[in-house]
Structures are given as structure tokens and as C-alpha cells.
Specification:
Blueprint: H1 19-34, H2 56-64, E1 74-78, H3 84-92, E2 97-102, H4 105-118, E3 125-129, E4 142-148, H5 157-166, E5 168-179, H6 185-198, H7 205-218, H8 224-233, H9 240-247, H10 257-267, E6 270-274, H11 283-286, H12 290-297, H13 301-311, E7 317-323, H14 335-340, E8 342-345, E9 356-358, E10 364-366, H15 369-380, H16 387-391, H17 398-406, E11 410-413
Parallel strand pairs: 1-2, 1-4, 2-3, 4-5
Antiparallel strand pairs: 5-7, 6-7, 8-11, 9-10
Length: about 425
């Protein structure tokens, strides 16, 4: 897969799509009409759990350091597929208007039924059968745009990301998920092998799935591709929809951090951070060697990202937020300002209220008695008390409040 697939000589979002791009777009639409994706089962209840990236207060706090002032926002789910993410966006943001678009009418039909079954507020969600290239047909701008698993399947990702950027309000956020080449090397090899064996039948997606499954069953157990499939993907790939999306997709571009930032730079938006920052912390890889850490300190942020993925190439995807300026960020370093902030518990904590919780990324956290008591006070005050008020008569250190915020266990707002 080309590293510079997001290379810069690209048409603007309002220019006609070339004939070859139209052919690729039609092929992608046909795949998802044949195998609507994702194939998550429909449910008569709201979706379980949460994904904090789809919860406006958590996304806003991640991007700016503070909770949002309003909840009645507009959200665009760009490339909604069968509506799994749309379902969360609607249920997690009960005051938001959600517009969902997708290339595949078959996927939209499933998404529409999914949200009807889950009891989503029909007055707050609408679907449109559109390419991301044609987002100028959607009225207005959006506070939050969600684009998961789409840009890497577009023939012109730069055109796509610019179309998304054009629909973002100033101060708004764009959440993106794209594939990473380093962790998908074996996937790329199998994709190419299936394509060779399909020959003139390439584009017959059911034949491609059959060829792929036959290959995996025929290769030796010690084969690297077989081992990788079993270790990483076999569970979800039992479903033909997942297998087809991974191995017989007609269009895929995989990124490394260098080509990714070329794509980001082309958008004209600000990079606000990877949504899994722990992975990008070099301390976990080189922290025991002060000399290496000192050398790494002289690198730019982007060079450190590149160094991280070179040392830990198990990067199957990148998930991150971009923002349209102006973006004001709060770090709460000023103690006077921190004391004036209102504190509230992050609702994306599984098991709260208890001293053992799962954080927004579902990692276990053990709260001390003092931390638990402070967070309980936040809850009891309904998020309306300032840090200074919450600390009255308490020995809880101000630094611990900052630590709770840094762990995304509480929100802060002025």
C-alpha cells in the first residue's frame, strides 16, 4: 500500500471526481451492499457501555481540557455504515442533532432499522445516502464530526478530509480512525494473494471471501499469515462481513505516522492528539535508559511518534482528534484558576460509584479513600460546586484533583 497515498497533488473538495475515482467509489458501494458493515446485531435496547470518543463532554474535555458549555450540538457521522456508531452518538448525546451519511443504501437501511429498534429519538437523527465528497449538500456546519474507518477506503483521502473540514464549525472537532500499515502488513499480503487468485473475478466479493477462507484453511498452521489471523482477527472474521471488509476490499490505503501527518496537514485543521496517548509515550519503551530518553527529548513530536511506532510496530490503526481553529486549551496549571473550576465525575467510568472502576478506556483504576470521597462530593454537588468548595474542610491536596483530571476521571469547567 502506498505510503504517500495522501500525497499532496490532490483535487479540492468541490471539483468533479475523476472517472477512475467514480469506479472505485462504485466498487466500495457494491461491497457494502453485498456485505453491510459492521455486522453488529440489532437490539431492542440502547447500545451497551460507551465509547468516550463519541460522548461530547468527554471528547470536548480531551480536546480542550475542559467540559463543554453546551450539550445541544450538531454531530455528523460521516460514513455511518450500518449505524453502530450512530446509535451510540444518538444515545450518548441526548440533546444533539445527529446527521448520518453513507455511500451504501443497503447499509443505511440497516442503520435506520438499528436506531428504530434501539429506541433512538427519531426527531434527532436523519440519514442521507451520500459520499463524503458530496458533503456540501448537507446544510450547515457541525460541532463534532465522526469519521471512523472511511478515509482509508476513499480513492482520494485528501479530498475527503477537506470535505469533512469544510463542514466543521470553528472550534469544532473531527474524530478520525484510519488503518496503520505497520500492524497490517500480513493483512496486505493476504489481500494481494486473494486478488491474484481471483484474477478476472476480482470484484466478485463472495468469490473473494470463499478464496480467502480456502487459503487460510489450506496453509500450514505454522504459516505467519495464519498465525497472525488467529492471534488478532479470527474471532470477528468468523462473520463474512468482517472477512470481506478486511481481505477483499477494493480500495485501501494504510498509513504510517509520516504519511498520516501529510494527510492531516492537507486538512488545514489542528492536530489535537491521538486518543490512545499512553501508546505514544516513549517512557514505556525506553524509560529505563536515561541517555536514550535525553536524545529523544531533542526530537519533534512527530519524530517521537515515528520513533514509537518503529520500536513498537504493532500499529493497526490511528485514532485521533483534529480541531478547527480557534481552539482554546486549558491545562489548569494556575492553582487559582483550578480552585475556581467546577468539577464533575466523568460518566464514562464502569463500576462507579466504587473504589474499583474501569476508566474511560476500560482499564482498572483503584481509588484511594480520599479520591473516592472527593469524587462522591462531585456527584453530590451535581457538578455545580467549585474545587475550592469541594475541598473545604478536607485535607485532599489540590494536586490530587489535578491528577484525577489528568486520568480523565473528572471533568473541569469554568
Amino acid at each position: 500500500m502506498p505510503e504517500d497515498s495522501g500525497a499532496m497533488a490532490q483535487p479540492l473538495a468541490n471539483q468533479p471526481i475523476a472517472d477512475n475515482e467514480k469506479a472505485v467509489t462504485a466498487a466500495v458501494e457494491q461491497l457494502y451492499n453485498t456485505y453491510p458493515f459492521p455486522p453488529d446485531p440489532l437490539s431492542d435496547e440502547a447500545p451497551p457501555g460507551y465509547n468516550w470518543r463519541w460522548y461530547w463532554p468527554a471528547a470536548h474535555s480531551f480536546c480542550t481540557g475542559r467540559a463543554p458549555a453546551k450539550q445541544n450540538i450538531r454531530i455528523l457521522d460521516a460514513g455511518c455504515g450500518t449505524g453502530n456508531g450512530t446509535d451510540y452518538l444518538v444515545h450518548l448525546n441526548p440533546e444533539a442533532e445527529v446527521v448520518a451519511v453513507d455511500l451504501s443504501p443497503g447499509a443505511i437501511a440497516v442503520a435506520t432499522e438499528r436506531l428504530r429498534r434501539s429506541g433512538a429519538d427519531a426527531d434527532r437523527v436523519s440519514f442521507q445516502n451520500l459520499s463524503i465528497y458530496d458533503l456540501d449538500q448537507v446544510p450547515g456546519e457541525f460541532d463534532l464530526i465522526n469519521c471512523v474507518g472511511v478515509l482509508h477506503h476513499m480513492p482520494d483521502p485528501v479530498r475527503g478530509i477537506r470535505a469533512l473540514a469544510n463542514k466543521l464549525k470553528p472550534g469544532g472537532f473531527l474524530h478520525i480512525f484510519v488503518y496503520g500499515e505497520l500492524g497490517r502488513w500480513e493483512v496486505q499480503l493476504m489481500q494481494k494473494a486473494i486478488a491474484l487468485l481471483q484474477g478476472d473475478k476480482r470484484g466478485d466479493y463472495k468469490d473473494g471471501v470463499a478464496i480467502g477462507r480456502s487459503l487460510f484453511s489450506s496453509l500450514p498452521e505454522t504459516n505467519r499469515l495464519v498465525q497472525y489471523e488467529k492471534q488478532r482477527w479470527a474471532g470477528e472474521n468468523q462473520r463474512d462481513e468482517c472477512f470481506a471488509d478486511m481481505y477483499v476490499h477494493p480500495q485501501e490505503i494504510d498509513y504510517n505516522s509520516e504519511s498520516l501527518f501529510k494527510l492531516i496537514d492537507a486538512s488545514g485543521l489542528d492536530f489535537l492528539g491521538f486518543s490512545n496517548p499512553d501508546f505514544w509515550n516513549l517512557e514505556r519503551l525506553m524509560g529505563e535508559n536515561p541517555e536514550l530518553m535525553e536524545r529523544a527529548a531533542g526530537l519533534s513530536d512527530r519524530q517521537r511518534y515515528r520513533l514509537t511506532e518503529l520500536l513498537d510496530p504493532n500499529v493497526t490503526h490511528y485514532e485521533f482528534f483534529l480541531g478547527k481553529p480557534p481552539i482554546q486549551r486549558s491545562d489548569w496549571a494556575d492553582e487559582t484558576v483550578l480552585r475556581q473550576a467546577k468539577a464533575s465525575c466523568n460518566p464514562c467510568l464502569h463500576g462507579w460509584p466504587s473504589k474499583m472502576v474501569l476508566n474511560p478506556d476500560y482499564r482498572p483504576i483503584k481509588l484511594s479513600d480520599e479520591e473516592f470521597a472527593f469524587m462522591e462530593s462531585c456527584d453530590q454537588a451535581g457538578g455545580q460546586a467549585t474545587v475550592n468548595q469541594l475541598l473545604e474542610g478536607s485535607d485532599f491536596p489540590l494536586g490530587k484533583v489535578l491528577s484525577l483530571w489528568q486520568q480523565s476521571l473528572i471533568f473541569l469547567a469554568l
